[in-house]
Specification:
The protein is 40% helix and 18% strand. The protein has 9 helices and 8 strands. α7 links the parallel β6 and β7. The longest helix is centred in the C-terminal third of the chain and has 22 residues. Bound molecules: pyridoxal-5'-phosphate (PLP). Pyridoxal-5'-phosphate binds next to β8 and α9.
Length: 223
Amino acid sequence: MFDVKGNLHRVLDTLPQGVRLVAISKYHPDDYILAAYEEGQRIFGESHEQELRQKHESLPKDIEWHFIGHLQTNKVKYIVPYVSMIEAVDSIRLLREINRQAEKCDRVVNVLLELHIAEEATKYGLSLDACRELLADGEWRGMAHVRICGLMMMASFVDDRDQIRREMQTAADFFDEVKAAYFADDDAFCERSWGMSDDYPIALETRTTMVRVGTAIFGPRVY
Ligand SMILES: *Cc1c(COP(=O)(O)O)cnc(C)c1O
């Protein structure tokens, strides 16, 4: 096995207080996850509903599962009963469906709004203006079964560190804007999820609270 335990500690050792690690375990087998679990890691991230379901069934029940992928509304009902956080909410439709399904199982589900700041057109997420509109519209205020905990984003896949830093800084500034405008009195709105294996050191300089690191811990994914 890849040196999961050693790698996990190498990543954890670089994280300042207040920054949590979401270990991204997609495409990796249960024993890799258990190796990290044995070292105390409890937050894991997955991006496919079926894979998450299987892992949730077979692995320890105190794991906090974050769904980090693009979520289709027809899959929401399968993950809502047990998921700890849905990180990539990119439409009011999806938010509505999470609220509807969470009400059915009497839960309040933590979510992040995903921003699209990267230049790649392939990425998902809300533009800053679309996110402003979603919040200004106010429908979310009536959703008693979702708790908006902050923002998530992926920087562009480029070598240009300055561009990555600019994109993350844009997200950090935008966090301050919406925090002041909509969540000033809401302590739950506190998370900034950015930073992956290649760019999490830059994320640490741009006020991330949650890094999502896969490859640097578990090695390359076999698709
Ligand atoms: C796969 C994935 C990650 C982790 O990427 P690594 O480069 O393996 O660290 C982080 N965030 C999201 C949204 C992902 O899909």
